[in-house]
Amino acid sequence: MSEGSISQEEIDALLSGVDMGGLGSAVSSSSAANNFDIATLQKFADGMKDKLSANVGTMTGAEVKCDSPLVEAANRDQLLAKVPEMVVAVNADFNKGLSGDHLFILSPEFAQKVAGLVNNEENPELDDMALSVISELVSTHSGAEITELSAGGSLPGLASSPAEALSQPKALVRVPQGNFVLFTYPLTLGGVPFTLWEAVSGSVADGMASALGGGVAATPPPAPTPSPAQQFNNQQPTMGGVPNMGAMQGMGMQQPMNAMPNMGMMPNMGMQPMNTPNVQSLQFPNLQQYGGSAEQGNIGLIMDVFMEMTVELGRTKKTIKDILGMGEGTIIELDKLAGEPVDILVNHKPIAKGEVVVIDENFGVRVTEILPAIEHVTNQM
């Protein structure tokens, strides 16, 4: 998922996870059955809590305490019911050794607290610099988990993708599909209680449990109980594939002689008759284009979601030496020419261009061009 921008694929994925009164694909709370080795994963989380406290304390320089974590099976609805409306979500999916979703969620207050302590700021904004601090925190904890899981040698080369933190509404968070395992770490940072949620997809949870020496063994389905007729046939001796008629008569089963096959027409009594299969061609239904009316109706489900819109005058790159040497009166040259249209961005992704105007002593922007849809897709790659 891109940095907050909503593509059509992401809208479809979002709508597919919404409970439409039993018509949607969301898993109900009662169906989040515990099919995972929770006991093994609980021991793993208990061993990671001290390392998590140490990592957060090292980064922030503050006193950190982590209480006993909770490990449970959950689904999308259950997770979203626990977290606030706005969250900082960090995806660090496993891509080697294990393959699957690996999601961390923090409250905005928790993220601001960590970023403020690291950057020595009071009430910092959740800008790119603050989010990079959260990404670094998650990368450190994820690396500690990888080290622990790889210790036994069953997951050689275990690795995950770079952590990417986003501040967004919880409805837009890419949550693992179906049932997954949720780790809940209660933390106290500088005397203030916070919570760190960690979710791993079902396949990752099973792989973790197996690497730790546990795992839920697959139970083969019970063999079907044979019917009385099948039990009778299995018990009767046969002659060349034909049941013993004497035994059938002894069981009270008689068959008219005219219904018996002609013995003279069966030269080889050891061969059973061959049934010719009835072969028919398979008819496929015609493919139809998915109707767009229902999709347009479902888009109303996210119409009240807030998104950040910004206007970018220009950009430039400076070395750390130049940045540290800046002071009042320093002029920064941008990459745009005077009079060139400015970029209009939604959640840091450009969607249009415009010109700057003044409205009652306030700056504004007049939209002059809407970027084509293909550019939206390109910007999300």
> What class, by secondary structure content?
alpha+beta
Q: What would the principal axes of the Cα set say about the shape?
A: globular
Determine Rg (CA atoms, Å). Answer: 32 Å
Low-pLDDT stretches: 17-33, 217-221, 246-269, 291-295
Extended strand count: 15
Strand content: 15-25%
| Order of helix and strand elements from N to C terminus | HHEEHEEEHHEEEEHHEEHHEHEEEH
Number of helices: 11
Report mean pLDDT, rounded to a whole number: 78
Q: Which features characterize this protein?
A:
alpha+beta, four-stranded antiparallel β-sheet, 15 strands, globular
Structure overview:
The protein has helices at residues 8-16, 38-60, 76-82, 108-119, 128-150, 202-211, 228-235, 245-250, 293-298, 320-324, 373-379; strands at residues 64-66, 70-74, 86-91, 94-96, 102-106, 159-160, 164-169, 180-189, 192-201, 238-239, 242-243, 309-312, 342-346, 349-359, 362-370. By secondary structure, the protein is α+β, with helices and mostly antiparallel strands. It contains eleven helices and 15 strands. Strands 1, 2, 3, 5, 7, 8 and 9 form a seven-stranded antiparallel β-sheet that branches. A four-stranded antiparallel β-sheet has the order 12-13-14-15. β8 and β9 (192-201) form a beta hairpin. The radius of gyration is 32 Å and the shape is globular.
Could you give a short description of this structure?
This protein is an alpha+beta fold and 381 residues long. It has helices at residues 8-16, 38-60, 76-82, 108-119, 128-150, 202-211, 228-235, 245-250, 293-298, 320-324, 373-379; strands at residues 64-66, 70-74, 86-91, 94-96, 102-106, 159-160, 164-169, 180-189, 192-201, 238-239, 242-243, 309-312, 342-346, 349-359, 362-370. The longest helix is centred in the N-terminal third of the chain and has 23 residues, at 38-60.
